[in-house]
Amino acid sequence: MSDALTGVWETLASQAPFFSELLWEHLQISATAILIALVVGGVVGILISEFQRAARPTLGVINFLYTIPSISMLGFLIPFSGVGDATAVIALTVYALLPMAKSMHTGLANVDPAILEAARGMGGTRMQVLARIKLPLAAPVVMSGVRSMVTMTIALAGIASFIGAGGLGVAIYRGITTNNAAMTMAGSLLIALLALVADFLLGLVERGVVRHRRRTRGGLVAAVASCVVALAFAGYGLLAPATGKDTIRIATKPMTEQYILGDMLKLLIEQDTGLKVEMTQGVGGGTSNIEPAMEKGDYDLYPEYTGTGWNLVLGNDGTYSEGQFDTLRQEYADRLNMRWVGMYGFNDTYGIAVRSDVAERYGLRSYSDLAAVSGRLTFGAEYDFFERKDGYQALCDAYGLGFATTMDLDIGLKYQALSEGRIDAAVVFTTDGQLVSPGVTVLEDNRHFFPSYRCGTVVRQEALDAHPELVAVLERLDGAITDEDMARMNHEVESDGKDPETVAEEFLRGRGLLSSGGGQP
Amino acid sequence: MTAAIEYRDVSKSYGDKSVIEHLDLAVDRGAFVTVVGSSGCGKTTILKMVNGLVAPTSGAVLVDGEDIREKDQVELRRNIGYAIQGSILFSHMTVERNISYVPSLLNRGNRERTRAAVTRWMRIVGLPEELRDRYPDELSGGQQQRVGIARALAASPDILLMDEPFGAVDEITRGQLQTELRRIHDETGITVMFVTHDVSEALRLGTMVLAMEGGKVQQYAPPEELLRDPATDFVRRLVERERRRCSLPDDLLGRCEHSGAGSVGGDASSDLETIA
Ligand SMILES: Nc1ncnc2c1ncn2[C@@H]1O[C@H](COP(=O)(O)OP(=O)(O)O)[C@@H](O)[C@H]1O
Ligand SMILES: [Mg+2]
Q1: Residue of A nearest to B73 (CA)
Q2: Which CATH superfamily is domain A247-341+459-510 in?
Q3: What are the backbone angles phi and psi of residue A396, rounded to the nearest 5°?
Q4: Nearest Cβ partner for B90 among A125, A133, A212
Q5: Which of A246, A272, A274, B163 lies 20 to 30 A from A110 at CA?
Q6: By C-alpha distance, which of A19, A33, A304, A20 is closest to A160?
């Protein structure tokens, strides 16, 4: 326990600028959603109280929206508002609307009708009664609703990173995808702290609302006003155009190697050009969300895999092989106005790994070698691989494999099962960090059953037209990283607990791609 | 002279339930009408018809000779002081802001004048100046009632509607408030409709008493006439205890201290002599 806390503390201390930026983004995203919900939810609450007949259907609709799981909500929104802060703010606002509208409605509905009759009977207009009597009397109920709405929004904003928005969720998500528990805990802890502080401050305001009597009203107004101003200020940065002309926006998928690659691209671009880089690490859903955002111009470039581009992006059938690379490039240029610039060299594809002692005993090099002895071996893969059309059965058909037994295994447990001898062979990814450890041998796909997934940078042509100097920078990574290099770097992040940026920087420096003055100390 | 308030064949029913039946009544300018009757007989209902909070099912209510349906409701209400049943104050407002509620609605943005008016009304209803910035829950029951009266009077209306305003105070405070109210009436000449379920209060305060039962008028007459000459059995039972307390012969009942003639206003007794 105390070890875990020390780890969290060290993570926070060593990466203070990173976390404070995330904290600020988190505040901006939540504050914007909160402000919009305050106004819209407040107005809706007032309207349905004034026109009672509208209350039931309206609350019904909002209640329904509220029951949509947040992940699905984001999924629905992405086609409309893309990935990024806007979608996050919309989703958070939708969730914040209900508590806001409801507490406003409840607060107003619970004002003593006799008081309202007095206010009306003495000649108050509808607006005067609302503004001078109803709202002030409803304030305590509304305030407690606002408090829970604010803490909920701050907590929920943690999922914003799933769709490429910033905020502390980035730390959580990065911690999960790069096997860094301290990072995840640090992010969660800061979210909890932020929510607690916000709740505490609102508590002060709330006490002001209830106890305004002793003080002048000016005090209360000032307290509320300063809260609103602070929120508005936080929200401003978000809505204001955040990126200038000289900013390159990089996206990465939620995978360790993509974090590392993203950092490499950023370091090189910022060293070699005058451009500023804005990075969105670990966009949830990967290609399916990043690619549409590229088309909309939200991102300028991201690391992609050829096989993924062929099947998922271009929608081609069949197994991609590198012989088709020219066609791939041409279709990207014609259909998407994007270019592949700089193929890093490694190929992150499926592979079959066997325990080294098994490989030695039977002299295994390729899948065909494996076919001869597979009847004596146990094979492991994640559940999904056994289910897919192009998965286990197709593989067996292609090579005439027939394993004695098969076993469903979680991705994270495959290597453990291999080393413990529970399985002899497994489907792996060729850049898995765990491949670095001795004891496993990756066999050759001699008949090219698996599609090729060479990795390179996909860039929008418009970004290249605007900044032609980018081409030279991106080409510096051409052929620079082997499968082994990538696996080793993944290992350093996932097992040695280094952060991706450090790993990226050390690698570039080692290759002489980064001058010693550049990057961070 | 047109009546200040007039009901013309007014009926009110909620669904099948008839609450007021064929009410015909004229309240003279400057009258102090007390409305008395048991709970649920329709007192509050006829009061709220004057400022349009309740609309008659049939018939018409006239204020200053004009059908209130023809008038702008907000305008109408601002010219009629209204002390709601229980004198409920606005709990989030100070005494000063409660009292200046109606003037502030009028947007006569003259702060000085409003402050001066508040000072004046606080003095008239007997509220010490230092209560000005207090909130209602920091006042005694009697003080709250006084604020309610001041709030109803603050815009100097021509008509004052009061619905059981002294319901929740002790006997001594109630007596003081009654005296205060009668004095205000005498000084301003305002037309008052005052609802109560307390017969002695009705007889003591009213220049006219409206006795109601089951949504119908039983008698509308000066207090001494009710005592001396009850129109119905209901009125007889209503005033019986007061009659016994006075233990005066019928023709001298007007001098009874429980009637408006005896205790508060001096000039009513001379009216009595002309009637008697
Ligand atoms: N909004 C309403 N709906 C139905 N019945 C009502 C309503 N308001 C008053 N009543 C009924 O009308 C009758 C007279 O009420 P009210 O004028 O308040 O009596 P009170 O003499 O006690 O002031 C009562 O029987 C009451 O139940
Ligand atoms: Mg009543």
Answers
A1: A123
A2: Periplasmic binding protein-like II (3.40.190.10)
A3: -60, -45
A4: A133
A5: B163
A6: A33
Contacts (Cβ under 8 Å, ≥6 apart) of A205: A143, A223, A224, A227
**Encoding tokens for residue A194?**
């932020």
Domain boundaries, given as residue ranges, for chain A = 2-239, 247-341+459-510, 350-442
CA distances from A431 to A213, A248, A351, A434, A483 (A): 67, 27, 9, 8, 6
The C-alpha R_g of chain B, in whole angstroms, comes to 19
Domain A2-239 indexed as CATH 1.10.3720.10: yes
B44 lines ligand 1 (CB under 6 A): yes
pLDDT of residue B268: 35
**How far apart, in whole angstroms, are the C-alpha atoms of residue B232 and residue A307?**
103
Architecture of domain A350-442: 3-Layer(aba) Sandwich (3.40)
Over residues A170-199, the mean pLDDT reads 89
Return residues 97-116 of B near A (CB < 8 Å): 101-102, 105
Q: Would you call B53 and A123 a contact, using CB atoms and an 8 Å cutoff?
A: no
Percent of chain B with pLDDT over 70: 87
pTM: 0.72
Percent of chain A with pLDDT over 70: 91
Q: What integer is the mean pLDDT of B2-16?
A: 94
Instruction: Enumerate the β-bridge partners of residue A492.
Output: none
Interface A:B, Cβ pairs < 8 A: 57
Residue B276 confidence class, pLDDT cut points 50, 70, 90: very low
B97 in Cβ contact with B122 (< 8 Å): no
Residue range A92-120: mean pLDDT, rounded: 92
Would the CB atoms of B88 and A213 count as touching at under 8 Å?
A: no
The answer to whether the A247-341+459-510 and A350-442 domains have the same CATH topology is yes
Instruction: Summarize the confidence of residues B24-40 as an average pLDDT.
Output: 95
Q: Given B77, B78, B84, which is nearest A114 (Cβ)?
A: B84
CB contact (8 A) between residue B86 and residue A213 = no
Q: In whole numbers, what is the pLDDT of chain A averaged over residues? A: 87
Predicted confidence (pLDDT) at residue B265 exceeds the cutoff of 70: no
Position B165 scores a pLDDT of: 87
B91 at A interface, C-beta within 8 A: yes
Centre a 10 Å sphere on the Cβ of residue B240 and count the other Cβ atoms it contains.
13
